[in-house]
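tool_call: predict_structure(chain=1)
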Amino acid sequence: MIITLTDTNTAKISAALLRAKRNAGSPAQGMVLTMIIVCDEPGYADALEASNLAGREHPSRILLVVTGPGRDASLEAEVRIGEGTPGEVVVLRMRGPVAAHPASVVRPLLLPDSPVVIWWPGKSPANVAGDELAQLAMRRLTDASSASRPITALKTRARNYVPGDTDLSWTRLTPWRALLAAALDQYPAKILAAVVEAERGNPSADLLAAWLEAGLRIEVTRKVSDGPGITAVRMTTAAGDIAVTRPDGLLASYVVPGQPERLVALKRRDATELISEELRRMDADDVFERTIKYLIRAEAAPKKRAAKVAAAPSRAGARTTKKSETPTRAAP
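tool_result:
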């Protein structure tokens, strides 16, 4: 059932929700959370499909906020219940001044006494936690890979991180991290160095390198490959490499020194699978926090070292120092 409302307000939308549930014969449905999705018109259809599919595992009230420019304030809504929709979907199209203050429209539509998650499938604010709509949520999901400059976007997320923030670039790494951790459990050798190979501008690869560096206390080299996504991780030991290579984005080759090569399913996951994973937890991701903060510290470290080198006197300068200005020290 789809109820379309033009030139509407939150009171009419709430009434339409109640009417639709009664007509569907289920006035009381078990919703586990409210999910706010913020996107523009071109990304609306994909976001709606992904959230509907994720809702099969997590029945939710989905509030899809589609904003657009305009001088006149307008609010249109579509209420969708049943007909393949696992929960409740309200599409809110806002224009003009209404779009500048969406929280005033969304707040009355939140499910009472249930968690709220917000997701930006495309462009997201630089300071996510400071956004008006984000302040309604306990989990905030972004996707740096959808930005025009993914690595820059990821570092912006890191600088403005607040517990509860998560980026889908990190969620994409769950199978990789599980496989690499299992490899280290199976072959607990000292790791001397590591290499992460991925297509250029892949934010997940930078996060994976930071995770390995922070956990293993080693230097991790980034190499550019043709993709898709991350294509290989190699960890060097005295006996040889622990290697996971995935050239086709579907099947990975898994090699540990002294053992035969094995094939492991490691396909690239779509937005529905990523969102479904993130909706399984409502607490802050401590490992993501440590990794993304390490990413920023690691970036700043070479700059600090370079500054110290630049400030140090050269050998030639030291030889021209007057004897009277040189500090003296008693002979040992």
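agent: Residues 303-332 have pLDDT under 50 and may be disordered. Proceeding to next step.
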